[in-house]
Amino acid sequence: MASIELQQVSKIYQNNQYSVRDVNLKINDGEFVIFLGPSGCGKSTTLRMIAGLESITSGELRINGQNVNRVAPRDRNIAVVFQSYALYPHMTVAENMAFGLKMRGTPAAIIRQKVAETAAMLGLDQLLHRKPAALSGGQRQRVALGRAIVREPQAFLLDEPLSNLDAQLRAEMRTELIKLHRRLGKTMVYVTHDQVEAMTMGDRICIMRDGYLVQSGTPLEVYANPANTFVAQFLSSPPINLVSCIVRSRAGEIFLELDGGRLIRVSDYAQQHYRRHEGKPVTLGIRPEDFHARQHGAHWQPLPFNVTAVEALGRKISSPAPSTMSGLWCASTAIPCRRRGSGSPCIWIPIPCISSTAIPAMSCRVRRRRPLSINPGVRLCYVKSLCTWA
Ligand SMILES: Nc1ncnc2c1ncn2[C@@H]1O[C@H](COP(=O)(O)OP(=O)(O)OP(=O)(O)O)[C@@H](O)[C@H]1O
Ligand SMILES: [Mg+2]
């Protein structure tokens, strides 16, 4: 078991550019943490620094409270599983899994027992005598995991381990990894640029961009309250709608004015926060699933809406481009098909309350209650929200 702490950790390669910059993060013992971000943002570099495969330019890395900046990888007792499996092609599954233990001089009987136990846990017991070439991608991936598990490391670092698999196998392996984490209870750090993996697998998501750690929180926290438009856009499919608007005061009340002059009233308790920013531009974020065909609560606000195209994706219906604001996406079963293309019905968005957060100054969120019939006076925090950024 291991807690991992990064304090102001940075990495500069020979090209003198920051690959990772001032990352502060505490990963708790037994936690399943996901590093998510676009290509080149520094996910693998951070992982490799934790493993000891890459030196740290500045900052401090602690494992279980001990500074390990200068501790060799083999002495950190951390297993790394890479995207490329890195299995030895001339060895059988059993030999591949046993390799690390053999190198450490573990007695043969113990190796046999550990390999057998781990193979049974991963459903590899019938494949122990096969070579990697005779395995499917998912089986190879499990062998790579098995090789890490038999070592009984204190933490697992997984760098895009599922990206070589097809969609169905990925989904299966996602579930397997979640179960594995529960069974082993070990700290896991998992790198991906797949938002579905990030949202479904981890206790916590750490979103990186250009070497910086932009936001860290539980998947639903980050989804409901993204720190900025980058995070909001990164965690959304179909994409979150970002609409420019301006903070306005009308008859003593504060509104967000959309393009075309339409006003959305800011909820009572956030009025004061917004008043300070009167006249300033902000970006309003509306999640596609927060569009509804009916007004379910008194505070819900209407937007003129004309569905111009529909993508039927099973239960979900996606529709780009309402009339007044171009390129909006809605994704909701709540919008009945018969409304498609039928003039300009109103679409209702739930804005029962907007809460402000301290940083950044103009950041706020609009919380949505569920069930929708709940007393609007009760402030409950739910996912799927509207957000604004200055
Ligand atoms: N050995 C190296 N020498 C110089 N620059 C490097 C080296 N390794 C990585 N980088 C740079 O550091 C930055 C972060 O790379 P890293 O591999 O950590 O990104 P990543 O987030 O894992 O991306 P991907 O999703 O594509 O794997 C990139 O700009 C990359 O070009
Ligand atoms: Mg990488």
TrEMBL record:
CC terms in the record's Gene Ontology section: ATP-binding cassette (ABC) transporter complex, substrate-binding subunit-containing
Pfam families noted in UniProt: ABC_tran, OB_MalK
Domain called ABC transporter: residue spans: 4-235
Record SMART domains: AAA
InterPro entries in alphabetical order: AAA+_ATPase (IPR003593), ABC_transporter-like_ATP-bd (IPR003439), ABC_transporter-like_CS (IPR017871), ABC_transpr_MalK-like (IPR015855), ABC_transpr_MalK/UgpC-like (IPR047641), Mo/tungstate-bd_C_term_dom (IPR008995), OB_MalK-like (IPR040582), P-loop_NTPase (IPR027417)
Gene Ontology MF annotations: ABC-type transporter activity; ATP binding; ATP hydrolysis activity
The keyword ATP-binding is assigned to this record: yes
Keyword match Aminoacyl-tRNA synthetase: no
Keywords for this protein: ATP-binding, Nucleotide-binding, Sugar transport, Transport
NCBIfam families membership: PRK11650.1 (NF008653)
Name this protein carries in UniProt: sn-glycerol 3-phosphate transport system ATP-binding protein/multiple sugar transport system ATP-binding protein
Organism of provenance: Sodalis ligni
